[in-house]
Design a protein that fits this description.
The protein contains four helices and eleven strands, in the order βααβββββαβαββββ. By secondary structure, the chain is of the alpha+beta class. Strands 1, 2, 3, 4, 5, 6, 7, 8, 9, 10 and 11 form an eleven-stranded antiparallel beta sheet that branches. The two termini are 32 Å apart.
Length: 252
């Protein structure tokens, strides 16, 4: 069983080529699973009252096509399994004809936001969400491999405009920053993100970039749908102590 959200691509969500931006795509998926949580009895206010919150650990996005201005799309989401403290949540975005535009695996954990500790997912919460089979394909391991350092390409300070309701840098903002590092003409076929440390207001963030023809997480040159990629760009977002906030891999 899958939870579904219908939508139409807005003018405010497109780039200079009339395609939906990657950050808008991320926001649609986050909105979809948030609406599901609201509809199954775990509203934001209820979670806050219990000092609970879902935290995203990673995205693995197989991208076939980006929706264009005015396109009608359907966002589907479901959980395939709970593995200890982690939940595997899948997304599929399809167009009006039912053609798949994106297939996505995301990994989440439930946090005690008062103590900032991972907590076990209550059984009644597990059964409240939609369950279905995982999407077939090699989406890589739970933990991403990454180089220790790359070429310094930029830096910025986290401001209030970057923050989400948990007062951390919003998940989509990391990707927006990283995408600016891509070479001209780079077409994203697969995007993988791992969040390792939370960036908060006032943090100084360094941007390091590694460009290569291969990728440590898909060394055989093949991504989740069995197709080959031609080049890889890895972006490391770090603090001044070289601790990594996020690793973002783009495969073309």
């Amino acid at each position: 069983m899958k939870y579904e959200m219908d939508a139409r691509v807005r003018f405010s969500e497109i780039d200079e080529f009339d395609h939906m931006t990657i950050s808008a795509l991320i926001n649609y998926m986050q909105d979809c699973c948030t609406f599901q949580s609201e509809d199954c009895g775990y509203e934001l206010e209820k979670l806050r009252s219990k000092h609970m919150g879902w935290f995203l650990l990673s995205w693995k996005i197989e991208l076939h096509a980006l929706p264009k201005m005015g396109d009608r799309i359907k966002v589907q989401t479901w959980v395939s399994n709970y593995n200890g403290l982690f939940a595997n949540r899948w997304f599929e975005i399809v167009d009006a004809r039912g053609s798949v535009m994106a297939r996505v695996l995301s990994i989440w954990t439930l946090m005690d936001v008062a103590k900032l500790r991972v907590m076990r997912i209550p059984e009644e919460m597990k059964t409240a969400y939609c369950f279905d089979d995982p999407i077939p394909g090699n989406f890589g391991g739970r933990k991403m491999k990454s180089p220790e350092r790359g070429e310094l390409r930029g830096e910025f300070t986290v401001e209030t405009i970057h923050l989400d309701t948990n007062h951390h840098m919003n998940n989509a903002r990391y990707i927006e920053v990283a995408k600016e590092m891509l070479p001209d003409g780079f077409e994203i076929h697969f995007l993988e993100v791992e969040y390792r440390k939370q960036a908060v207001l006032g943090d100084h963030v360094k941007i390091e970039v590694i460009e290569s023809e291969t990728n440590m997480n898909f060394p055989d040159g093949v991504i989740s749908d069995g197709s080959a990629y031609s080049r890889s760009v890895t972006v490391l977002l770090k603090n001044d102590e070289d601790e990594i906030y996020a690793v973002i891999d783009f495969l073309e």
